[in-house]
Specification:
six-stranded mixed sheet, Rossmann fold, disordered N terminus, 10 strands, 264 residues, alpha/beta, four-stranded antiparallel sheet, BCA_ABC_TP_C, 2 domains
Length: 264
C-alpha cells in the first residue's frame, strides 16, 4: 500500500470501521448467514453472541476474507473489500484470533511476538538477524507486557498454560497497526482467574483499536463489550447495549432459559 493510500485510510475515523450490508453466505442450498447488516464504529467493542450454528464463525470468515460472501457488501473503514483476499484486509488494519491456537510452540513468547511484528513489516523477508536497538524488538516487548506475559517472555510457548497461550494470541493480533480485531471465543476453556485476566487485557487495549468478540461466555462478553449483536439461525436477531440484551425477554427465552449462553 502506498503512503498516500495509508494516510487516506488512516484519516477515515468519522465513518464506520466495519459495515456489512445484506451479507449472505450459501453452502449449496444452506444459508449459513443470511442478509446480515451491521455497522461497527471505529474503536467500538462489539460482542456477537448466539448458540452453536447461529452463523457467528461464518460471519467472521466472510469479514476476514476466508469466505467470499454469496451476496452483499463488506466495507472496512469506508473501503469496499467484499472481493479482497485476506492479506489485503490485513494490510488495512484487520486482525483475527482463532478458536484453535496457531503459535510456534518451539519458540519463546518474545520470539513469537517478534515474528508477528516482523511479518507485517516491509522488511519481513530479510534474512538479517535483529540488531541491538531494533524497533521491532522493542515493540514486541511492549506487546508482551500489554498481554501480561512479561514474566514468561523467555519461556517456550509449549510450556505455557492454555490461558497464557490465548493471551499470546492477542499479542500477535496487536502486531503492526491493527484497527479492528476479531476475537473468536478467546475465553473458551479458561479458568475463572484466566477469564479475569482476559477481561483486564481487553479493557486496557488502546481506545483506537476496536474489536468484535464471539463468545459463548456471556459474562465475559457483556463485561468487555459496549454493544451486542445477537444472532439466531444465521440472521441478526437483536442488537443493543449489554444491559438491553441481558434484560430482553426474547433473548432470555432463547439463550438464557436453557443455559446456552454459557455453553452454546
Amino acid at each position: 500500500m502506498s503512503a498516500a493510500a495509508a494516510d487516506r485510510l488512516g484519516a477515515v475515523t468519522s465513518g464506520s470501521a466495519l459495515e456489512l450490508r445484506g451479507v449472505t453466505k450459501m453452502f449449496g442450498a444452506l444459508a449459513a448467514i443470511s442478509d446480515v447488516t451491521m455497522t461497527v464504529a471505529p474503536g467500538e467493542r462489539r460482542a456477537v453472541l448466539g448458540s452453536n450454528g447461529a452463523g457467528k464463525t461464518t460471519l467472521f470468515n466472510c469479514v476476514t476474507g476466508g469466505f467470499l460472501p454469496t451476496s452483499g457488501t463488506i466495507r472496512l473503514f469506508g473501503e469496499d473489500v467484499t472481493g479482497f483476499p485476506a492479506h489485503e484486509r490485513i494490510r488495512r488494519g484487520l486482525r483475527r484470533t482463532y478458536q484453535i491456537s496457531l503459535l510456534f510452540g518451539g519458540l519463546s513468547v518474545a520470539d513469537n511476538v517478534y515474528l508477528a511484528c516482523r511479518g507485517v513489516n516491509r522488511y519481513r523477508f530479510s534474512l538479517l538477524r535483529p540488531r541491538s536497538g531494533d524497533p521491532l524488538v522493542a515493540r514486541a516487548e511492549e506487546l508482551v507486557e500489554a498481554v501480561h506475559l512479561t514474566a514468561a517472555r523467555k519461556r517456550l510457548v509449549s510450556e505455557l498454560s492454555y490461558g497464557q497461550q490465548r493471551q499470546l494470541e492477542i499479542a500477535l493480533a496487536l502486531a503492526g497497526a491493527p484497527r479492528l480485531i476479531l476475537l473468536d471465543e478467546p475465553a473458551a476453556g479458561l479458568s475463572p482467574t484466566e477469564r479475569a485476566e482476559l477481561i483486564a487485557i481487553l479493557g486496557n487495549l488502546p481506545a483506537h483499536i476496536g474489536f468484535i468478540i464471539i463468545e459463548h461466555d456471556m459474562d465475559v462478553a457483556l463485561r468487555v463489550a459496549t454493544k451486542v449483536t445477537m444472532m439466531h439461525n444465521g440472521r441478526v436477531f437483536k442488537e443493543g447495549t449489554p444491559a438491553e440484551i441481558e434484560e430482553d425477554p426474547q433473548v432470555q427465552e432463547l439463550y438464557l432459559g436453557d443455559g446456552t449462553h454459557a455453553h452454546g
